Amino acid sequence: MALVDSEGPLSAIGEREFTPVELYDIPDTLLPREPRLGGTCVAVPADRLASLARSGPAVLGLRPGLAGTDDFTASLLKELRALVGLPDGHSCLLVPVVPQTLAGLLAREKWAVAHDVVPRPAGGAARPFSAGGPDAWSAADLSGTSWPLAEGFLAALDVAAFCPGALLGVVPGSTVLTLSPRAAAAARAEEGGGPFGMCALLDADAPGTPRPSTSDLMMLAHGIRTLAESHPERLDGEVASRVELIAAHTAGRSWLAGPPYRRDRDLTCVLPTTLAPSAVRKLVEFLESRALVYGLADPDRPTALRVGLGRTCGDDDLVRLTGLLDILLDEAR
């Protein structure tokens, strides 16, 4: 399938500009109903947003404050462990910081530095950690991928972290952290880490240690149960089908520098364009300032767009998005 028009050769990469159009020139049929289709944001289903708006201890029948949520949290993590196939000996935590912040906290831990297990982004790798022998330790940040669902994968990692946003369709801002038995033992043996240290995070009763809000817990519960009840083993096949859908609806476009592609188990799709970096910025700003589409900028590729492929990004909206891009880039079909 030819995805690059003969009049838009690869030599034109980074040369094309973007000229804004009037909103009344865009047909309503091309406006996505869900604007959060970009790979850098998460489309959260309406029922989960509603649960967030009304969430709080009252939803759980509790008094104000987080006291009394321990049993609910334990039940929630049990469901999460079952979903990702985490062995009984591994520790599983929900930390109320983003993965980058968590990596910074781990970088202060002597045991993590000594064993080189500060998690780094998987980056689309076929196997996002190196095996240095039977005794080597391993770690990875699996955010934005379906790797946590791969059978036995988390069990092979000493330290794994991932933002549950894209995978579970929840508001980003927290991180799931798993530790192997030897990693947990090393973390507990380190002293002086303070309330943000791994030792304190592993101790549910440690004073001052940050805990997820009830809102985070409610959202995560919705996301875990929805995925668990809807054949999670089919997710990768569904994502691959969405890449094919986008490719079919962008075939031959001169604003594309190559076919859309997905890096291994990423939950996003990259659209390499013939636009200059400044044109990509203008296009993204145009879409976001008018609340049409959010999050299409690719921080790693200034001339590319990145589209979400998770279950919360519907096929119909993805088709609308490709048509919208055609209109904005003066290539209506």
Structure described in brief:
This protein has eleven helices and six strands.
Characterization of this structure:
This protein is of the alpha+beta class. The protein has eleven helices and six strands. The protein has helices at residues 46-53, 70-84, 99-106, 110-114, 165-168, 181-189, 198-202, 214-228, 235-250, 277-289, 315-328, and strands spanning 91-95, 139-141, 159-162, 175-179, 268-272, 304-308. The strands form two sheets. Strands 1-4-3-2 form a four-stranded mixed beta sheet. It has a two-stranded antiparallel sheet with strand order 5-6. α2 (70-84) runs parallel beside α8 and α9 runs parallel beside α11 (315-328). It starts with 45 loop residues before the first helix and ends in a 5-residue tail after the last helix.
How many helices in DSSP terms?
11
Biggest sheet: strand arrangement: 1-4-3-2
Output the helix-strand order: HHEHHEEHEHHHHEHEH
- Please report the total strand number as a whole number: 6
Largest sheet: 4 strands, mixed
Defining key terms:
single chain; 333 residues; four-stranded mixed β-sheet; alpha+beta; disordered N terminus
List the helices and strands and how they pair.
Layout: H1 46-53, H2 70-84, E1 91-95, H3 99-106, H4 110-114, E2 139-141, E3 159-162, H5 165-168, E4 175-179, H6 181-189, H7 198-202, H8 214-228, H9 235-250, E5 268-272, H10 277-289, E6 304-308, H11 315-328
Parallel strand pairs: 2-3
Antiparallel strand pairs: 1-4, 3-4, 5-6
Helix pairs in contact: 1-8, 2-8, 9-11
